[in-house]
Amino acid sequence: MKFSTHLQTAVFDSPLGPITLAASAQGLAGAWFEGDLHRPDTSAWPAAPTPPLLQRAQQQLAAYFAGQSRRFDLPLDLQNGTTFQQAVWSALLALPFGASTSYGALSAQLGNPKAMRAVGAAVGRNPLIIFVPCHRVLGADGALTGFAAGLPRKRALLQLEKIGFRP
């Protein structure tokens, strides 16, 4: 995924570690934990005074982690993904707080039940961790499966939302 160098960034210190947030003129374009497998090099992006959108993102993340909010209300910029990735991410946005799905169910929902691996790859490349709730995707048997930011973080997010899973 190639991101514009015109993104502004801020860092949110979450209970699960720092999250780098990135915003474009269209909306929130990125949210990555330190150590995220698909985190882009953000060193060229300016860390100027935090723009209002990134301030709102930080406030909403703080409320989410404090158990005071169950949804995010921010414009999102998903244009850095392929058409297929954007379709997967849009489907994830429809998944409510406290609910989960499987890769197979997500594939079927998108009209291609055999595309589980492609869906899994798109879920893993999600540039907006937590905001686009990829942590709510489990294995077909409810098992805890991969997460670009690490399984301990996925486990913690599922527990925060009281989503049951099989370890």
Quick summary of this structure?
This protein is an alpha+beta fold. Helix content is 31%, strand content 14%.
Provide a descriptive summary of the structure in words.
By secondary structure, the chain is α+β, with helices and mostly antiparallel strands. It is built from five helices and five strands. Helix 3 (103-109) packs across helix 4. It has two domains: 8-65; 83-160, Orthogonal Bundle (Arc Repressor Mutant, subunit A), CATH 1.10.10. The strands form two sheets. A three-stranded antiparallel β-sheet has the order 1-2-3, with helices on one face. It has helices spanning 52-65, 83-93, 103-109, 116-124, 151-160, and strands spanning 8-14, 17-23, 28-33, 101-102, 137-138.
Helix-strand topology string: EEEHHEHHEH
The number of helices is 5
Query: Mean pLDDT, as a whole number?
Result: 93
Question: Biggest sheet, open or closed, and with what strands and sense?
Answer: 3 strands, antiparallel
Identify the CATH architecture of the largest domain: Orthogonal Bundle
**What overall form do the CA principal axes indicate?**
globular
CATH superfamily of the largest domain: Winged helix-like DNA-binding domain superfamily/Winged helix DNA-binding domain
Helical coverage, percent range: 25-40%
Cross-sheet strand order for the largest sheet = 1-2-3
Q: Return Rg in Å.
A: 15 Å
Specify the CATH class of the largest domain: Mainly Alpha
Assess the beta-strand content as a share of residues: 5-15%
Distance between the ends: 31 Å
Number of separate strands? 5
Number of domains: 2
- Structural class of the secondary elements? alpha+beta
Low-confidence stretches: none
Briefly note the CATH topology name of the largest domain: Arc Repressor Mutant, subunit A
